[in-house]
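Give me structure tokens for this 349-residue protein.
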Amino acid sequence: MKAVYFEEHGTSDVLRYGDVPDPELGPGEVLLRMEAAALNFNDIWARRGLPRVELPLPHVSGTDGAGVVIDVGTGVEGVAVGDEVITYCVNCCRKCPACMSGEEIFCREMKLWGFQTGPYDGSYAQYAKLQAEQVTPKPTHLSWTEAAATTTSLLSVWRMLVTRAQVKAGNTVLVWGASGGTGSFALQLCRVLGLRSIAVTSTEAKAEFCRGMGAEEVIRGDCEDVHQRVREMTRGRGVDIVFDHVGETVWPISIECLAWGGKLVICGATEGFEPRIDLRYLWNKQLSFLGSHIGTHREWMECLKLVEQRKIHPPVTQTFPLSECIAAQKLMEDRQIMGKIAIRMDSDD
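Here you go.
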């Protein structure tokens, strides 16, 4: 089958488009003919390599996808050949106390499909295998590319705001990286939940995109003082929640922007893992710093209700054929995107 893969870590130059072995189906697994996939920043982290994280090589990335079931393994129930499905990226043991209690993201064997699994085990391929529990029916009103972009970013946003930060209607949320895939889902969810969102982005085109996603106010981080603008917008109070997936470079500003008793919730760090903070802010302002990682299957079902109700729509702004996935990843790495980038499997080959 055709796939985009790498055999060693490095820059985008290590990516290859070509033939790789077809997946071999095991018990409890389903085989998909992939129709579309969607990019996430963990594709970049996997390709670059991460300290103390071993990733199987050769590696096919891709944690989001949509396709048609073409085969099922022994013991599979509730999924049949011909089903049109979307994917959930959590691969786990399905039998430990965490899994049995619906908290599979705390399973000691949990891996993100297309990130930690492999070799050759992700959505940037013509065929892919997953555990049967990792697929659910595709929302019928969505195109294949839209359907492929419904899971990882939206699910992360839901867990960050609803489960971890426990937001309440009327809260003010500062959203970093608001024009990207994760940020644009965050703006949509803020609107649905009755939250006041302040988007931080760069360029006027991205600012307009954020307004279209539901941002009530936008700060141009490339030419405005974020802290000063937040003080103006909140009459000196600060924000209740900082929504962060940027990391090191924005933490000092984030802490300044938080109201007393505020919460910072983070799910990733595209600009560094080791922030410096003045701990006096932590105890004097009685702040809460919350980590968040992907989300449970139960939370995914809650997200999909909003998609089915058409309250949230996957913000796909660009699509590429599989053969051009390398170019698409370069755009994401260079921050030259808005919303989500999707990959079609209708390659020229």
